[in-house]
Design brief:
- InterPro entries: Acyl_CoA_acyltransferase, BioF2-like_GNAT_dom, PEP-CTERM_FemAB-rel.
- This is FemAB family PEP-CTERM system-associated protein.
- It holds the Pfam family Acetyltransf_6.
- This protein has 2 domains: 142 residues, 3-Layer(aba) Sandwich (Aminopeptidase), CATH 3.40.630; 131 residues, 3-Layer(aba) Sandwich (Aminopeptidase), CATH 3.40.630.30.
- Strands 1, 2, 3, 4, 5, 6, 7, 8, 9, 10, 11, 12 and 13 form a 13-stranded mixed β-sheet that branches.
- The longest helix is centred in the middle third of the chain and has 18 residues.
- By secondary structure, it is of the alpha+beta class.
- It contains 12 helices and 13 strands.
- A hairpin with a 2-residue loop joins strand 9 and strand 10.
Length: 358
Amino acid sequence: MNAPFAPDARAADTVTRVDLHNAEEVRRIAAFVEEQRGSPFHLPSWLNAVERGTGQQACGLLAERAGRITGWLPLTILRSPLFGRALISSGFAVDGGILAIDPGSEAALAHAVGELAERLCCEEVELRGGTVPSGWDAVTGKHSGFVCDLAEDDEAQLLAIPRKQRAEVRKSLQGELHVTVGSDEPDRAAHYACYAASVHNLGTPVFPRRLFDAVLDGFGESADILTVWDGDAPLASVLTLYHQGIAYPFWGGGVWRARATRANERMYYALMCHARGEKACTRFDFGRSKTGSGPWNYKKNWGFAPEPITYARWSAPGAAPRDVDPTSEAYSRKIDLWKKLPLPVANAIGPVIARGLA
């Protein structure tokens, strides 16, 4: 670890920047995340996968008191010629704010990350979840999260879906579609084809495939890909993380035919059953969506209640807030142009842009 940061006068913790290539430190931090019921995005394995997959540097701040870990802040150092410099907790994720055993450790980490941002000439720090530190801006209501308990068996899971959406799921079960689950090369290729087509249709650049490969490799049995096929053609596919009894479908999408064939309905119902039956999960985290958007309404149709998400933001003096939201008005014309690009062209240049969209 590096030299300690200057302590906050209010805290008794020592905060240091961690070398995430140190196996012993990684083990200690992972154990702390488990103890504190953190998300998979708090784990060093997530940060290191992001670094391998995008080139954006992984790091983190560790608070200790008398040799005991009292707090952890996972970070991705984002450097982008298009979107500036920032510290994100946690990069390319929807969660990952400060994990701490008490307010003193939270304050120490918040103080240290501001100091680190200034050292690295970062314009902004974004904490995705956890407590909003004193003096920071709270960004709330822009996105909602959707989490629900899984039912006790497949039939109960089907009956838990509201009537109108349940009818769509039943129709998807009557067709010729079939489902596979795995993480081998055919699974990965099918997933990337579906995901790339999906985000292109939305007008946003696709992430590098090596990011998905790095996450699958880093999480091992705690991650897989579920794909819905029509014969030999993949229609919809989702990469899911499994952590502490919760399924996190994270990167999912489908080709144009997915809607007409109800492949997405088949996919998410099959995933709920797989998560409970094969992965022993009891809860399903449908992820975040922009409030009022199409995906937001889609998740509500499945019976999930939206819960507003609050993020915390620190900005360097005089720095304007970064705008990396692809749905913002500033990007509307660019999105329309991106949709018109041939898919092979978008897939070639998209990852270069997307690696800055942490």
